[in-house]
Amino acid sequence: MSVTGSSVLFCNGQPADAATLGAALVNYGHFTSLQVRGHAVQGLDLHLQRLAHATQALFGSMLDERQVQRWMAQALQHAGMADASLRVTVFSRAFDFRDPLSVVPVDVLVAVSAPVRLSASRAVCSVRYQRELPGFKHVGTFGLFQQRREAMAAGFDDALFLNEEGQVSEGSTWNLALHDGQQLVWPQAAALRGTAEALLRQHWNGPQVVRAVAAAELDGIQAAFACNASGIWPLGAIDGRALAGSEALAAQGRAVMAAVPWQALQV
């Protein structure tokens, strides 16, 4: 059993060794992060679909989703945890950057750590930044964390991204919903569409729309929340402008998610 920080790591159902971890450090792969409660996951099918789609796109390989579920369940069992945070990373020890078109078998690394639930309000600043291949949750996270670091150095809690056209896209590791006083607005710009966003959009019981949001429109926003698999939290301020309605909007979002069913891991 290999431990990095507070995580326990398993590769293809076995405790990960140094050689495996070395291969996983090659900056080519993708992942999904999720919360487990009682061996069940909200939006499990969405997480597996994300992994399968990216595996086909990046490696030309098919992913055995049932096997991935078994490895996730086995990792939880080995760690002795029914509630946990999981990061499931797909990479390939056979991948050769000199021949990137070669179809190769993939490996699955499962990291198990303590469960997380984010809820604290955050103040964010908008920055011009666009992730590479924003539709994939790939392992190239350097830019995301650097943007968050720079935002924190400037006195904020995180960064909100604007694309080259000045449209709102996403946060460093989260999606966001804005409220204009009439309806919930999901920014339309290219971004990583998270499982929490998908579930909220599916179950939201009020008016909502997906549309382009220009940076100038942020001045008229009345409330906003951020979301990912780790929770929903209010955006208390954007670029120094306080959003008084964000706490109530985030509470509404959490109420919606509380009614979303949990899918049991199949072993």
Features:
single chain; 267 residues; alpha+beta; nine-stranded mixed sheet; disordered N terminus
In brief:
The protein has 267 residues and is of the alpha+beta class. The protein is built from six helices and 17 strands.
Give a description of the structure.
This protein is α+β, with helices and mostly antiparallel strands and 267 residues long. Helices cover 27% and strands 30% of the residues. It contains six helices and 17 strands. The strands form three sheets. Strands 8, 9, 10, 11, 12, 13, 14, 15 and 16 form a nine-stranded mixed beta sheet that branches. Strands 1, 2, 3, 4, 6 and 7 form a six-stranded antiparallel beta sheet that branches. The chain has a two-stranded antiparallel ribbon with strand order 5-17.
Shape: globular
Report the uncertain regions. Answer: 1-5
- Beta content comes to 25-35%
Q: How many helices in DSSP terms?
A: 6
> Rg to the nearest angstrom?
19 Å
From N to C, what is the helix and strand string? Answer: EEEHEEHHEEEHEEEEHEEEEHE
Question: How would the blueprint of this fold be written?
Answer:
Elements: E1 2-4, E2 7-11, E3 14-15, H1 18-24, E4 30-36, E5 40-41, H2 44-59, H3 65-79, E6 84-91, E7 107-113, E8 122-128, H4 142-153, E9 158-162, E10 168-171, E11 175-179, E12 184-187, H5 195-203, E13 208-211, E14 223-228, E15 231-238, E16 241-242, H6 246-258, E17 263-264
